[in-house]
Every structure is written in C-alpha cells, then in structure tokens.
Design a protein that fits this description.
Largest sheet: 2 strands, parallel
Helix content: 25-40%
Shape: elongated
Number of strands: 6
Strand order of the largest sheet: 1-2
Structural class: alpha+beta
Bound molecules: flavin-adenine dinucleotide
Radius of gyration: 22 Å
Strand content: 15-25%
Number of helices: 4
Length: 120
C-alpha cells in the first residue's frame, strides 16, 4: 500500500515525505508525539512563539536551502540579539570588542588577544 513508512514527523521525516510524495511515492508518516515538527515544534502561547523543546534558530549560508524552506514556510522577523548578565552588568553576546572593552577596560584587539592568551 505504501512505498515508505516514515517513523517520526520531525524535519527529516517531513522533508523526506514531502520529497518522496513529489516524486509520486506513497508515504505513511507515524509520530509518537501529539504534534508534527519534532524538536523544532513551537507553540503559540498568547501570540508568542514558544519553543517547546529548547530554542531553535534557522541558520544557513546556502541559497538553495534558504529558497527551499521559504517555499514551504513563512519566517517571522526574529533577530537574535542575546545579552549576558555578569556581576550585575549586561554584556553583548556573542563576544565582540565592545564586550572585551567593557569587561577589561581595553581598547584594541591586540590587548584583547593578550588577555585571552593569558587566560588560555
Ligand atoms: C535544545 C535544542 C536546540 C537546538 N537548536 C537548534 C538550532 O538553533 N538550529 C538548528 O538548526 N538545529 C537546532 N537543534 C537541532 C534540531 O532540533 C535537529 O537537528 C532537528 O530537529 C532534527 O530533526 P529530526 O527530524 O532528525 O529529529 P527530531 O526533530 O527529533 O524528530 C524525530 C521525531 O520522531 C519521533 N519519533 C522518534 N521515535 C519514534 C517512534 N518510535 N515512533 C514514532 N515517532 C517517533 C519523535 O517524537 C520526533 O517527533 C537543536 C536541538 C535541540 C534539542
């Protein structure tokens, strides 16, 4: 009856089923959770996208991959700008010269490199 039995409706199972179906194959996807999407699943809680299994951000440098996913789903305008709290101060993440300058009171990459080298 089916060409493929796909266990799990996460990214892999969903993409495989999509691509196989496009090629005329008949797929059955089974999923033990009560939702699709696997670990990238998000719940809409009062208009906020909550990542049930931990935060997920889509990264790619590959234009083909970017176009592929954009043909399937709509992305929101989330911008990742985390900060770190350390000893009552707020610092930029990931670390940059601004972070090092505030942490150590320095001005140049050479000074930052010297301190990092010492700490290594
Ligand atoms: C906390 C966290 C943060 C992450 N952050 C990122 C990120 O920022 N960017 C990124 O690209 N990736 C991130 N990842 C990785 C990403 O989640 C995985 O690469 C991706 O979800 C894997 O997809 P998958 O389909 O292989 O597996 P899964 O998403 O795990 O899907 C597998 C599915 O199979 C189901 N299943 C398993 N066994 C059975 C069974 N016997 N019967 C029925 N169903 C079954 C499961 O319930 C699940 O829904 C993160 C992962 C975690 C845990």
């Amino acid at each position: 009856m089916y060409d493929y039995l796909i266990v799990g409706a996460g990214l892999f199972g969903a993409v495989f089923a999509h691509e196989a179906t496009k090629r005329g194959k008949k797929c059955l996807v089974i999923e033990k959770r009560n939702h699709v999407a696997g670990n990238i699943y998000t719940e809409d809680i009062e208009g906020i996208c909550v990542h049930t299994y931990g935060p997920h951000i889509f990264h790619t440098k590959n234009k083909k991959v970017w176009e592929y996913v954009n043909n399937l789903v709509e992305f929101n305008h989330y911008v990742n700008c985390p900060v770190a709290f350390y000893k009552d101060e707020v610092y930029n993440m990931p670390f940059n010269m601004n972070t090092f300058s505030r942490l150590w009171g320095i001005k140049t990459p050479a000074e930052a490199k010297a301190i990092i080298q010492k700490q290594i």
